[in-house]
Amino acid sequence: MEWVKDWLVSILCAAVIAAVATALCPEGFSKKLTRTAGGMLLLLAVLSPVRRLEGGAMAQAMARYRLWPEETVQAMAAGQEELREAIIARQTAAYISDKAAALGIREPQVRVTCHMTGDGFPAPESVWVQGSGPEEAWRALGRAITADFGLEESQQTLERMDVP
Fold this sequence. Notes:
The protein is α+β, with helices and mostly antiparallel strands. The protein is 68% helix and 16% strand. It folds into two domains: 2-75, no CATH class; 83-160, 2-Layer Sandwich (GMP Synthetase, Chain A, domain 3). It has helices at residues 2-24, 29-52, 55-103, 135-149; strands at 106-116, 122-132, 156-160. The longest helix has 49 residues, at 55-103.
């Protein structure tokens, strides 16, 4: 980090030299010329770290810079997939919980797992429901889950808690 300090000091020195030279110059063409030269000096000071880079180091830096957006987009896409899966699982669980309560199942607890389909969208993969209620309500819930989400009995775990 020492080079950053040196770089900033060189920019500051170039700015001071350019300002003093411009202030000491008489008005007219010579002042315009001095301002231009001061601007060039400042530009050289700003770009001075570039000349310290070797050709290979510059190529590596540019390659990393080009790959950075691609890597960032891939990481964001993976995060979005996980987020979409979580949202679909939560919404599906809320829907099934409401359906179970409407059918007469008391205190339903629902968990849903999802998977990514071939078209890139999450879909429910399995459902676990626990609660208490009449046998007919549980059968109706199983049929509703199959009809609404296409999940077969093997993908459903329905646990009655009030069975002796």
